[in-house]
Write a structure and sequence with these properties.
CATH topology of the largest domain: Metallo-beta-lactamase, Chain A
Number of helices: 9
Strand order of the largest sheet: 1-2-3-4-5-6-7
Largest sheet: 7 strands, mixed
Shape: globular
Order of helices and strands: HEEEEHEHEHHEEEEEHEEHHH
Number of strands: 13
Bound molecules: zinc ion
Radius of gyration: 20 Å
Distance between the termini: 22 Å
CATH class of the largest domain: Alpha Beta
Strand content: 15-25%
CATH superfamily of the largest domain: Ribonuclease Z/Hydroxyacylglutathione hydrolase-like
Structural class: alpha/beta
Length: 341
């Protein structure tokens, strides 16, 4: 997800310290498998999957900050007394790995942080500069918000800005003290954990949302955990590989599962959303290709491609369509044309 995607959300950390139950709604998917669905609080967190195995627990993804990971750890302790032995980072984006630090030393047996080689490299090469970038760019954002707060006259607007300022200030403080914690165990294509009747397959199926996305697949439970390769919102494509993404979605969709725990949004059933995203990418790339072939400028392409896709994908993606379509057209146009601008 884009950084600091707090938008106009009005729910708040600023009003007080959230209790652990406030950050995630724990939904039991099947015996020993839970979806921790992130509540829509600023600064956003990803969902997690919590998989209780014979001798320990696996958690998939660690949210945007160590305090969020600690909040989930407190919730996990209410469902099992087993230690978290494995954490998976599905990809290198801030809202999926910045909580890693919370797991280090939390249980005496230790916690292995698992990712693809590509994701570990991406955290080192791109994740760390992005954290540093935020540490220098959040303070001026806060100044702008405070100036806006000083001008605001409506009570609801003042409250919203207070909440946003509170949440971003707390996030900045966490970033400044955060030790970026890299994955400790990496693999190229697949890593399988066998535990009694249950096996856990951590699979790199190809490039997609990033170069290193993995899915976590539980064949006996028919559950897949997808990170942001597929989720309940609109695809975020800035670090994506759209042509590969279609094939990777098809490879994931070919696995035998009924339940999808995605990086954002609610638990999903079935495979329809995989087909929707693949169709969307095909249509987006085709329309962007036609715009590029006509000699459209990027601005013209944004307008025309959005107009062509809106009748089909506006209803499918809801309000997120208009929030995300410009960024997606920018990406598709540049990929199709092989251009920077
Ligand atoms: Zn995300």
């Amino acid at each position: 997800m884009r950084r600091l995607g707090v938008g106009a959300l009005t729910i708040l950390l600023g009003a007080g310290v959230a209790s652990s139950e406030d950050l995630f709604e724990m939904k039991k998917v099947t015996e020993g498998v839970w979806a921790a669905i992130a509540r829509p609080l600023p600064v956003i967190n990803c969902n997690a999957a919590v998989i209780v195995l014979e001798d320990g627990v696996m958690v998939v993804d660690t949210h945007s900050k160590p305090s969020a990971a600690r909040a989930l750890m407190a919730q996990i302790r209410t469902i099992t007394d087993k230690p978290v032995k494995w954490v998976v980072n599905t990809h290198f984006h801030w809202d999926h790995y910045q909580g890693n630090q919370a797991y280090v030393g939390a249980w005496p047996a230790g916690t292995e942080i698992i990712a693809s080689h590509a994701t570990r490299e991406a955290i080192e090469s791109r994740g760390i500069p992005r954290v540093k970038h935020e540490i220098v760019t959040v303070p001026p954002q806060l100044e702008r918000l405070r100036a806006e707060r000083a001008r605001a006259t409506a009570e609801a607007e003042r409250q919203r800005l207070d909440d946003e300022i509170g949440a971003r200030s707390a996030y900045l403080a966490e970033l400044r003290s955060m030790q970026v914690t890299l994955p400790s165990l990496t693999f190229e294509k697949s890593l399988v954990l066998y535990r009694g009747a249950r096996s856990v397959h951590v699979l790199w199926l190809g490039k997609g949302h990033t170069d290193g996305d993995v899915v976590v697949y539980l064949p006996q439970d028919k559950v897949i955990v997808t990170g942001d390769l597929l989720h309940g919102w609109m695809p975020y494509m800035a670090d994506g590989y759209p042509y590969d993404w279609i094939r990777t979605l098809e490879a994931a969709s070919a696995l035998d599962f009924d339940t999808v725990i995605a990086g954002h949004g609610d638990v999903m059933r079935g495979k329809e959303r995989f087909a929707l995203w693949a169709r969307y990418f095909r249509d987006l790339l085709r329309e962007a290709g036609e715009a590029y072939a006509r000699g459209d400028t990027l601005a013209e392409a944004r307008q025309k491609v959005a107009a062509a896709l809106r009748p089909t994908y506006g209803p499918a993606f809801g309000s997120r369509f208009d929030e995300s379509i410009d960024g997606n057209v920018n990406k598709a146009f540049r990929v199709v044309g092989g251009v920077m601008e």
